[in-house]
Amino acid sequence: MIVPDVTLELAQWVVQLRPQDIPDDVRREGVRTFVNWLGCAVGGANHETVDRAMAAVTQFCGPQQATVIGRPERLDVLHAALLNGISSHVLDYDDTHLKTIIHPAGPVASAALAVAEQRSISGARVLDAMIVGIEVECRIGNSIYPDHYDRGWHITGTAGVFGAAAATARLLGLDQQRTAWALGLAATQSAGIREMFGTMTKSFHPGRAAQNGAMAAYLAESGFDSSERGIEALRGFANIYSNKQDYNEILGDLGRRWEAALNSYKPFACGIVIHPTIDGCIQLRNELGVSGDEIESVALRTHPLVLELTGKKTPKTGLESKFSVYHAASVALLKGDGSPEAFTDSLATDAEVIALRDRVSAEPGEGIGEDQVVISLRLRDGRVVEKRIEHAIGSVKRPLSNSELDAKFMRQSSLVIGEEKAGALLNAAWQVAEAGIVGDILGHSAPA
Amino acid sequence: MIVPDVTLELAQWVVQLRPQDIPDDVRREGVRTFVNWLGCAVGGANHETVDRAMAAVTQFCGPQQATVIGRPERLDVLHAALLNGISSHVLDYDDTHLKTIIHPAGPVASAALAVAEQRSISGARVLDAMIVGIEVECRIGNSIYPDHYDRGWHITGTAGVFGAAAATARLLGLDQQRTAWALGLAATQSAGIREMFGTMTKSFHPGRAAQNGAMAAYLAESGFDSSERGIEALRGFANIYSNKQDYNEILGDLGRRWEAALNSYKPFACGIVIHPTIDGCIQLRNELGVSGDEIESVALRTHPLVLELTGKKTPKTGLESKFSVYHAASVALLKGDGSPEAFTDSLATDAEVIALRDRVSAEPGEGIGEDQVVISLRLRDGRVVEKRIEHAIGSVKRPLSNSELDAKFMRQSSLVIGEEKAGALLNAAWQVAEAGIVGDILGHSAPA
What we know:
Two copies of one chain form a homodimer.
Chain A: H1 6-16, H2 24-43, H3 48-57, E1 66-67, E2 74-75, H4 77-89, E3 95-97, H5 105-119, H6 123-144, H7 147-151, H8 155-158, H9 160-172, H10 176-187, H11 201-221, H12 237-241, H13 248-251, E4 263-265, H14 275-288, E5 295-302, H15 304-310, H16 318-321, H17 325-335, H18 345-348, H19 351-357, E6 360-364, E7 373-379, E8 384-389, H20 402-417, H21 419-430, H22 439-442
Parallel strand pairs in A: 5-6
Antiparallel strand pairs in A: 1-2, 3-4, 5-7, 7-8
InterPro entries (chains A, B): MmgE/PrpD_sf, MmgE/PrpD_sf_1, MmgE/PrpD_sf_2, MmgE_PrpD, MmgE_PrpD_C, MmgE_PrpD_N
Domain MmgE/PrpD C-terminal (chains A, B): 268-429
Protein name (chains A, B): 2-methylcitrate dehydratase PrpD
């Protein structure tokens, strides 16, 4: 088999793409991606996970070059990228490229924004670099998915570092060779494993991918060389990290087929595979108006990945509860909620939630897709009610509208920076392409 | 199969081991490891690779907490660990755990020294932490080698991050749970691929492993949690990174069998697998006294890994030439040299070296071990001379003596910091266990 020059050709595209080559609909989706990511970064900013990361890194930080979104601190570019990547993912509320389950913006936008602040770059250039980075990230993901993910890699970390490197390389104005080196330095830092799901280390993955991808491009800028075949070489990324290598997914129809336009935004703050269950349980609660006591049992038939990824029977913390379809179903039925407040430490240990959670069962159902579920509710009065979700809210078939994104943004960020600042930040975020210097937007994100 | 609690048990050992539990011979080898590593870090300190890394990171560095060995700069702990890891490996002249081809000290000592400077820790404690870190690193390497390496991983990076995390955790005084978290954070950052051999990015691997391992422990110190089963879980390190998982190599005879005592030190500044060839060619040169013109051809029968790892036919840079058995044989025959000066950009492009290099052939020989080679020299006068190396110099069977380590140290570090400072540094290095504060030793390493 003749292997194409994947790394060099991809680098060429990153370098040569002109702003006018990005179609309007792709850029519109890019703005939605940016707005959603920024809201999540603010929403997660005062999570204990972010506090502890901040406590660890403060002793090493350099000049105050970039904003830590939703917090008073400013850090050097690399640490700001790390922290923003963590905060934007810690609530599991961000965005999803459904073909690969990559959460694209965390690694890419966290890097691009911090770099752009240091170099005083316009919002329009940052937006385009973010779109390019997400395209690189999702295409590399497509080339190795699903084998790569099935092996146990957290693809948001492993593919994300390439996206962060590509976006940063573009912002730094690297040439083709140095962009290829940056991709090589990304390849050799690609990391993140699924065992970490349910711990603080999960959100470390997009943060570190952002930081490492940015570092890759800065090293290349300084002439630190690397392989120009980091992705496709025999002992390169794709062969080591996956049994599947479909390079046409990376190079095919570059600039015509846009993976960045397929991004979706989570309506619920947890693993995407339990969204159909939450959607259906909230609908059942609204339709039936029953209390937890009236429910005898809940039987779920789901996609097989649901149990592999979110099968925790007895979560003990808020972060663990995001990986429990049982917890999510219980809270959706009891509270009608799938927002960040549905996955707190206190709800994970709430007696009523636990009592109903333990009456939820789940098994893989034949022909059930990733955005589907069949829920059977058995009530104490003998009734059995079944609800089938064909396409969960937030999926490509039922995307969040701009006003739903607004509501999501305001709800989570008002809790952190207050309603007034959240409103100003939201307004500035929608106007990102008009910002002369992108750092001006982030000025609205500091808490009062 | 019942999988033991590898991560937690290993963490317990790291935490509980007392200084008196380390046997004298193990600690003696630890001192030799430290002396050799320090000399290599000085020797590589003004390499272009280090200059370029420094140029990239300076803009982000924090407080001047730790020494960049052999250079005037002081950087924050994390960046100093990165730079020292790069400089100590860039000449491919460091140490080798021959069972796994791990170069143990780069990741571990680079982290431990920088951390110890920040926290004003004694030489004795640093030495013990380094020994413990190397033990963890090599045992994890043993558990997955050779499948892991054969797949394309650069095991010095992938296993090294665990060693750096373990050493740092011990220096920070973390408890068992937090040490397990540090190992989990190491697992999820484990990286480095073999495609990078021959570029600056190869030495980035031990540097980044040092930095990332240290970061893992600092995060754990701040309560940033992680899996406590990062090594052995189904979607954990060992299962994802290798088809072989022999946990007995990690937990068996802990504290009785010491991998750290098996370290070896390179007599030549290149990949270990071509050392038998260089050893034999230098012997042939000394015995025959022939010039390059008098040699018609050189035929090598080697271990199969030699061609896989060092089969570059036409290296164009000094770094590439370290991965060319042809270049190494040519220079050894022409100059009698395998030191860093045998692998410079100018020798890689030298006409005489290239002319003889192109008359060297190599093929795998049946029954040839990794520390063996058979060299057939055909001379223009018709003679054929054969040399068989049973155990190359520097191998476990023919270790470098302390005075050979002295000579190696002085030769490479005098070039960078001058003979006087090199002598003082060497003397201080042998006394590491007596240093009240380990940073005092490194004060001798700055160039005049």
